[in-house]
Amino acid sequence: MDQEFYMMRAINLANKGIGNVSPNPMVGCVIVKNGEVVSSGYHQQFGQAHAEVNAINALNPEINPADCILYVTLEPCTHFGKTPPCTDLIIEKGFKKVVICNTDPNPLVAGKGIEKLRAAGTEVVKDVLGEQGAELNKRFFTYHQKKRPYYILKWAQTADGFISRWPVPENREENMISTSDHLLAVHKMRSEEMAIMVGKNTVLHDNPRLTTRLVKGNNPIRIFIDRILEVPLTFNIYNSEAKTIIFNEQKSEVKEHLHFIRIDFSKNVLVQISEKLYEMNIVSVIVEGGARLLNDFILQGLYDELRVFKNYELHFGSGIQAPNAGNHK
Q1: Which of 56, 88, 119, 196 has its CA 20 to 30 A from that of 170?
Q2: In this model, does residue 234 exceed pLDDT 70?
Q3: Residue 284, pLDDT above cutoff 50
Q4: Looking at the DSSP assignment, which residues form a beta bridge with residue 284?
Q5: What pLDDT score does 207 carry?
Q6: What integer pLDDT is reported at residue 329 of this predicted model?
Q7: Which strands sit side by side in the sheet containing 123-125, from one edge to the other?
Q8: Longest CA span, the chain
Q9: How far apart (Å, rounded) are the C-alpha atoms in residues 190 and 236?
């Protein structure tokens, strides 16, 4: 079997870590001897063992690593973080050949792992299924290359192109666009990203919780923009279900799970927010509305992905129009 076959095994393994390893990348590792996979592992949880460590630990002690090829989706790390450097372990165990999907874009690694392995006499093959690996870790790559989170713009719209009635009805059910299947998909999506962002008006009109209560998974960090802190503290978004960041012009303060961050609203708000989130190691963000916030992201070309949920059975006739990203990006 060829190198691509084993690397795809590693990529599929890596994907199991989605939603649990950020801000780290998803990484999978497969160890092969004489054309047979003899061990494998993936990075399962942020702060815990990396993929290479899990695969090596699972290797039968009677098998000599020198007789094996180690396949890994991302260049092994060379620095001490939450765990020791994987390159040191690979060298110590005596692997003679390592096949890598992508070079790590993190400046702390960025080729140093490959250099260290080669300096120790290990043969290194790189860029095997590089495009698939970059897609797997598109959030991690965007974060390091663009110095901002990976932004996913998401909204639900009616068949006739509206995202809300106007005026917004007091009964939220009258304004519901998403089907039950859509809601499950959205909650799964939330569980896979680090954070979720909305504007002040969305909070005031919908009083959302922005959690993953319909699926099993971590709640994302909640982010909203409230210039003069108009949202009452009794609203759901302030509850203790998740860390919450409030961008405002009044104060900078951390109180338990609440992080108030002051920014200058006379300057580009989204650029400032992106810089702050980058500093906070927030790798990916779903932007769920409202219309003004979504349109601001679109007008500035500040997004990486659109996810639009259309209800083809529902017509509002009038209301707040859905964003149009057709002429941007």
Answers
A1: 196
A2: yes
A3: yes
A4: 150
A5: 95
A6: 41
A7: 36-42, 28-33, 69-74, 97-102, 123-125
A8: 71
A9: 17
Nearest to 142 by CA among 19, 269, 305, 299: 305
One-letter identity of residue 111? G
* Residue 6 predicted with pLDDT over 90: yes
- DSSP class of residue 204 equals H
**Residue 65 backbone class (left: φ over 0; alpha: ψ -120 to 50; beta: rest):** alpha
Cβ(44)–Cβ(21) under 8 Å? yes
Residue 293 phi/psi, 5-degree rounding, is: -65, -45
Handedness of CA 11, 13, 19, 24 (dihedral sign): negative
Q: Which H or E run contains 308?
A: strand 305-311
- Counting every residue written for the chain, the total comes to 329
More confident position, 170 or 267: 267
pLDDT digits (tens, 9 = 90+) for 25-66: 999 999 999 999 999 999 999 999 999 999 999 999 999 999
From first CA to last CA, the distance across the chain in angstroms is 40
Q: Predicted confidence band at 87 (pLDDT cuts at 50, 70, 90)? A: very high
The amino acid that residue 204 corresponds to is L
Q: Which residue has the tokens 């979504």?
A: 294
DSSP letters spanning 32-78:
EETTEEEEEEE--STTS--HHHHHHHTS-TTS-GGG-EEEEEE----
CB of 108 closer than 8 Å to CB of 86: no
Residue 117 corresponds to which tokens in the numbers above?
A: 């392995």
Alpha helices in the chain (DSSP H): 3-14, 51-57, 86-93, 112-119, 130-136, 138-146, 180-192, 200-206, 269-279, 291-299
- List, by residue number, the catalytic residues: 52
Six token digits for residue 184: 């499950």
pLDDT tens column, 240-258: 999 999 999 999 999 999 9
Are the C-beta atoms of 287 and 297 separated by less than 8 Å?
yes
**CA 268, chain centre distance (Å):** 24
